Amino acid sequence: MFSTIGFILSIIVAICAITLLITGLFKPNLVLWWVKGKEKNRSVVFKLYIFIISLAICVGLISFSTGVYRNNLQLMFLFLFFICLFIWVIGLIFPKLIFTKGKRLRLKSAILFGISAVLCLSLSILSAPKYNEKEKQQIAAIELKREEAKAKTDEKIEKENMLYNTNILVTREGSWGGFLRDYNVYIDNEKIGEISNDETISYSVPLSEGKHTIYISKGVKSEKIKFEVFEGKTKFSFSCKTKGTIGIDLWKDPDER
After folding, report:
1. What's the CA gap between 80 and 115, in Å, rounded?
2. Burial of 185 from C-beta contacts in 10 A (0-12 / 13-18 / 19+)
3. Which residues, 6+ apart, have CB-to-CB distance to 224 below 8 Å?
4. In the 8-state DSSP scheme, what is residue 99?
5. What share of the chain is helix, strand, coil (3-state, %, to 5)?
6. For 32-67, how does the pLDDT look when each residue is reduced to its tens digit (9 = 90+)?
7. Cβ count near 45 (within 10 Å)
8. Contacts of 32 (CB under 8 A, 6+ apart)
9. Which letter does DSSP use for residue 236 in this model?
10. Calpha distance 28→39 (Å, rounded)
């Protein structure tokens, strides 16, 4: 950004200084209005504006090299090329929109903006970044890492959003006394079913990959429930009190556990 601004300003300053230098060689009083006495001469004009032009050229070269390295100038000249091309087409169709007076307006517009478009395109090509073989390999390696990181991120997001049909089997642990009656089965605070009698209940629930909490409400303190969760060939089996909770991890591939 700053290299582009510096390059544009240096060009403007150089053009203005060259114009004043040429004018001052013929009329030194006009371009040295702040100088008094005999010092208004061509020698002073030449020294002053040659210094300004040299300084502008140095700043322009530094900005140009920086802009080439950062690929700013190529985009700027390419943008100016399309602007000149657009004005060139407008000038061919409606020449009076470009030049209001004079003869051969269409020809003037075509020559002026045609040359400007060619110049901008040439400068865009010249200001393209120049890389040696080592730098090209480094850039290719960086791009490869970016693509791999993006692919991993997309895969992770897809995996997190994917739902798997998970079978959950709820049974009493042991065969001794008591009934499982009017119990509610929850996953992540969402009710998935209820047990009305002392029986084994099986649920098929779509769950995304990650941790989930399964529990049963109500029950006696000593009562324990056995949970069996099947995800593909993977089986999770655990027991807890009816008011307890347990966290499980579901994975698409059992080998990833």
Report:
1. 12
2. buried
3. 172, 173, 174, 239, 240, 241, 242
4. -
5. 55, 20, 25
6. 777 766 667 778 888 888 888 888 888 877 776 666
7. 24
8. 24, 39, 40, 44, 45, 48
9. E
10. 10
Q: Give the count of beta carbons closer than 10 Å to the beta carbon of residue 28.
A: 18
pLDDT in tens, the chain (257 residues): 556 677 777 878 888 888 888 888 888 777 777 776 666 777 888 888 888 888 888 887 777 666 655 566 677 777 778 888 888 888 887 877 777 777 778 888 888 888 888 888 887 777 777 666 776 777 778 888 888 888 877 776 665 555 555 555 555 544 344 445 556 677 766 777 666 555 555 666 666 656 666 666 654 433 445 555 554 444 555 444 444 444 444 444 444 43
Cβ-Cβ contacts under 8 Å for 217 (sequence gap 6 or more): 183, 184, 186, 242, 243
Residue with tokens 């079913």: 193
**Domain definitions of the chain by residue range:** 2-126, 162-256
Nearest to 32 by CA among 18, 49, 15, 16: 49
Edge-to-edge strand list for the sheet holding 234-241: 201-208, 163-172, 224-231, 234-241
- At 208, which amino acid appears? S
Which helix H or strand E contains 252, and what residues bound it? none
Report yes or no: 35 and 44 within 8 Å, Cβ to Cβ: yes
The single-letter code of the amino acid at 189 is N
3-class DSSP state for residue 191?
Answer: strand
* Helix, coil or strand: residue 36: coil
Class of residue 166 by CB neighbours under 10 A (exposed 0-12, middle 13-18, buried 19+): buried
- Contact present, 186 and 216 (Cβ < 8 Å): yes
Token pair recorded at residue 72: 């700013």
